[in-house]
Amino acid sequence: MNFNNSEKSYIRGCENLVGAVNSPVRAFASVGGNPLFIDKAKGAYIKDVDGNKYIDLVLSYGPMVLGHRNKKVEKAVTKAIKKGTSFGASTNAEIKLAKIVCDAFPGMDKVRFVNSGTEAVLSAIRLARAHTGKDKIIKFSGCYHGHMDAMLVAAGSGLATLSLPGSKGVPNQAVENTLISEYNNLESVKEHFDKHNDVAAVILEPVTGNMGVIQPSDEFIRGLRALTKEKNALLICDEVMTGFRSHFGGTQELLGIEADITCLGKVIGGGFPVGAYGARNEIMENVAPLGGMYQAGTLSGNPIAMAAGISTLTELKKQNPYDKFNTVAQKLEEMLLTSAKKHGIDLVVNRFGSMINAFFTDKKIENFTDAQTSDTDMFAKFFWAMIENGVFLPPSQFEAWFLSSTITIKELKKLEIAIENAFSAMSS
Ligand code: PLP
Questions:
Q1: Which of 298, 318, 338 is the last residue of a domain?
Q2: Which ligand 1 atom lies nearest to the CA of residue 116?
Q3: Confidence of residue 167 (pLDDT cuts 50, 70, 90)
Q4: pTM above 0.85, yes or no
Q5: Distance, CA 117 to ligand 1 centroid (Å)?
Q6: Which of 48, 56, 238, 260 is catalytic?
Q7: Strand 110-114's sheet: what is its strand order?
Q8: Do 314 and 363 have their domain in common?
Q9: Lowest mean pLDDT: which of 82-91, 146-155, 207-216?
Q10: Is the minimum distance from the CB of 24 to ligand 1 under 6 angstroms?
Q11: Could you tell me the CATH number of the domain that includes residue 363?
Q12: Measured at the alpha carbon of residue 261, what is the angle toward residues 317 and 182, in degrees to the nearest 5?
């Protein structure tokens, strides 16, 4: 396999782009080597600029749940483009997507569209503060909520792969209201509530994807819901990654809880830049123009992005691929574990719906400290061995792998061979 054109693009890209990328995880920092440059993608596959074809388990870090170039989505987007690409005024498409999203979340009466998951979270946090009149936010180590200053503490994948505890350029004042707890450890949340009576909200990934896939225990997630209610703090479920990935709606519903504010992104934009935050009327009425919390966006609710979101969610509802996702993920787990065992490699596989990933450790993974026991050098070897065998994985131990509805038995067979070849090469 050669990567000559990717290498040339990388050298050219470094001249005017920072590290030749527009988001750090794309730089392959933790797996070594130069980043791949992509030419095109279709269905379950993606092709780089050297013509190498891979089964795509990155899927743009989640949005492409229907695979690439879904016909319905492509048609809807093309049709929307012909009507004009941005108006700076409301459209019926925004109302339609808002209805689809609110109908899918029992605790959501109103939603506000923004342009990214980061914007969704920063607005949700402002909203929690506006609603409660309190300032502090509890977050969990290993959870990533976008790159707003206050959330860039103990923030999982991107920072973990660059070995950065936080980010330069974030003033102390920006994070002094951020309290860190340990995922799956309710006591660590109670301790903050015992010390602080000005906690506005607790934010979490209800199932994580940014320290690998980790599910909350029943006791933890239900306890968190009860505790936040008792303390008059809001529970923010950041479902930017998990929304519509394991169920048509939120993971919170599968976990048996209802968030006060939900953040969305990725899938709801069908590959276009869309984020959203939503809640019950009494909370959303704080947002301008109904209330005094200001939040705005020139391109928010962009008609092309709305068309992509509507067609993606409509098609997703029709296809209802969620049982298939579970079956495929279960098969993938079996393949990984069987092959790893055969080659004497320690491996733990975590999965939830269409999100799955493998940790090179023998330890059960329930929080970020556990996740960090994974041997990242082994992951780097595995990553490149999978590339050589035609599978594109996220270039980070701490990032979830994603499934799309276009994956079939054919791809599963190819994955089985790729995994076996990879582990065989790693153990020889
Ligand atoms: N929240 C979660 C859970 C995410 O996984 C991400 C991105 O991966 C974000 C927020 C930030 O979203 P964006 O990259 O669209 O700003």
A1: 318
A2: 15
A3: confident
A4: yes
A5: 5
A6: 238
A7: 110-114, 275-279, 261-264, 234-238, 199-204, 136-140, 178-181
A8: no
A9: 146-155
A10: no
A11: 3.90.1150.10
A12: 105
